[in-house]
Design brief:
Helices cover 51% and strands 24% of the residues. It is α+β, with helices and mostly antiparallel strands. The protein is rod-shaped, with a radius of gyration of 55 Å.
Length: 241
């Protein structure tokens, strides 16, 4: 009976030892597995952190490049704005005023009418603001047309007793009438003592001036007469330069 008891005790010790060995072996396997999983996670994390760091670095570099491009664009826009302002200021300096445009147009018209450039240049250099002007009596004169023939006498008028002005035009109603067509160009012939004869062909009203006796100017405006068909009214003034 004693042996049987010892045998049972021995079997229990072996069972306990076997259980402890299995437990230790299981714990070791679990520990190794956990350690391997931890190392793998650390490595994966390090790789991901490295990849994210590289992406972040590339993104920051791209942002810096875009910022430099924006700065370059802003600098160029500032340069373009300054150039625009300079061009606008230059344009304002060279752009002719309305008065200068009117003078240029008048010069072109005189050149087209055959007036010599040196004559215009002389007139411009000799021009001066009048010191005093006197209004002379207005005149009314008929405009001769091809249909009037000998009846056209009396189409010459004296302005300031020094300038002779003769007018010719085209017949109204397509050239069929004796009276002139005020919407068509007329020809003014200027002459007089000490005056170089010249013609002016233009549509009414016509404004011009003639220098007489060196320091006087006869200024006149020719308009269609509103009350008398076939006639023109002439406003005249004489100015001392």
């Amino acid at each position: 009976m004693y042996r049987r008891r010892n045998r049972r005790s021995e079997e229990r010790r072996k069972a306990i030892a076997k259980f402890l060995f299995k437990a230790f072996l299981g714990g070791a396997v679990f520990a190794l597995t956990a350690y391997y999983a931890y190392e793998t996670g650390v490595r994966v994390t390090q790789v991901e952190e490295g990849s994210l760091g590289a992406r972040l670095s590339d993104t920051l570099q791209t942002v810096h490049e875009q910022e430099r491009r924006v700065d370059d664009i802003r600098t160029r826009l500032d340069e373009v704005s300054r150039e625009r302002d300079e061009l606008r200021a230059l344009y304002d300096q060279i752009h002719p005023s309305e008065e200068m445009q009117a003078v240029t147009l008048a010069l072109r018209e005189r050149l087209a009418q055959g007036v010599k450039p040196d004559r215009l240049l002389f007139a411009i250099r000799a021009a001066a603001n009048p010191k005093s002007c006197a209004t002379l009596p207005s005149r009314r004169v008929i405009v001769r047309t091809p249909n009037q023939g000998a009846e056209g006498a009396g189409n010459t008028v004296r302005l300031g007793d020094v300038v002779s002005l003769t007018l010719e035009g085209e017949g109204g109603n397509g050239g069929k009438e004796n009276w002139f067509d005020p919407d068509r160009p007329v020809t003014l012939r200027l002459s007089g003592a000490g005056i170089r004869p010249r013609d002016i062909s233009a549509t009414l009203p016509i404004e011009d001036a003639v220098t007489v006796r060196g320091d006087d100017e006869v200024h006149f405006i020719v308009r269609p007469s509103p009350q008398h068909r076939g006639f023109v009214d002439i406003v005249v003034e004489r100015c001392r330069l």
